[in-house]
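Q: Hi! First time doing this. I have a protein sequence and I read that you can turn it into a structure. Is that right? Here it is:
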Amino acid sequence: MRLAVLKERRDGETRVAATPETAKKLAALGCQVAVETGAGLIAGFTDQAYAEAGAEICQDAATTLFGAGVVLKVRAPLAAGEGEVDELSLIHRGALLVGTLEAGANPGRAEAYAAAGIEACAMELAPRSTRAQSMDILSSQANLAGYRAVIEGAGAYDRGFPMLMTAAGTIPPANVFVMGAGVAGLQAIATARRLGGRVSAADVRPAAKEEIKSLGASFVGYEDEESKSAQTAGGYAKQLSADFYAKQAEVVAAHIAKQDIVVTTALVQGRRAPILVTQAMVDSMKPGSVIVDIASDAGGNCAATHPGEMYTTANGVKILGYTNWPGRISAAASALYARNLLTFITTFWDKEGQAPKLPETDDIVQGVTLTRGGAVVHKSLITAPAA
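A: Yes, that's right. Below is the predicted 3D structure, encoded as C-alpha cells:
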C-alpha cells in the first residue's frame, strides 16, 4: 500500500499530515510512505529526517500521489482553479483521503470526491467518544491554539503578565478574561495562570463552571434555566436564544471593561462564530488592552476583529484576529495531528490485506466518512427527498 503525504498549499497552512515519527510507524505497518519534498520543512521536519524514517522523497505532487491508495492531508486537496496544482485530479480513483476536509462549509467538496471515486474521511467529524479520543483532531489542535493564543496575547501586551515587584515599584498582574471554556479555553486559562495572570472565564455550558474553578480562575456569567441545556450530547456549546445572549452580554460588558487581555474561543459547529465582544465593549477597554480571537477562522467572536490580521482600534485596543491558530505552533500541531491520523489508520488496518479496512457499521467510520463507492454517504450532507 502506497501512502502519500503532500505539501500543504492552501494559504497560511504551515502544518504537515505526517511527521518522521509517524512516517516510521506507518512504514512499520507495511506502507510504502511517499512524502513530497519540502512537505514538513516549515514545521521543522526535513526531507532527510523523513528519508531516515523510511519514506520515499518525491519531487512533486504527481509523483507523490502516483499509485497511492491512501492520501494524508491537513487541509482539503486543491481542486481545479484553487491553486497552481490541481491535487484532486491527481488522486487515484478508489484511494482513501484522510484529513480536515471542511465539507460542511464547502458543499461542493463531497460531490467532487464522490465524482472522483475517492473514499473521503473528514476527521473533524469524528464522534466525541472515549474510543475516538486519540483521533480527535479538533481537540488536539484546539489545545495548542489555546496555548498559543495566550502566548501571542502576552507578546502583544506591553505591560507584563505576572506581578513584578522591583525597587522602582510594583507592576500588577494582568487581568485575563477567557471567553469559552472548551478545550482551547481551558488551555488558555491554564497557560495564563502559569504566566502569573489574574484569570477569569465565562462559558454558557453548565459543566464549565466547575472546570473553570478547578484551574484557579473565577467564573463570570449569567445563569438561568436555558443555560442548563446549553451543551450538546457531544459536549459542544449549543446556540441559545437572543434573549439569553443579551443578558450574558450585560454581565460580560461590566467585567470586560476592567480586563487587560481577553481571549475568545467560542465556536458553534457548522455556523459562524457568535459575537461575544461587541463594539461597545471594545470601546470600553483601556488603551493597550489586547483581544485575542481564536474564532477568527469562523468570522470571529469580536465585532471588531479583522480575520487574518492584527488590528489596533481608535482607542488603542489591539485585536489579534490571526487565522489557523494551530499553524502558529506548527511543529507541535503537526506532531499531534499526525498522531491522530496514525491512530485512525492503525485502528482500521487490516494486517492480512495490508490496507485500511473501514467497516460501514463502525461508529467512528460512520462519523467521518463523507463518500464511498462514488456516492456522498454522510448523513449531514444528504438532502432529504421532498415530500
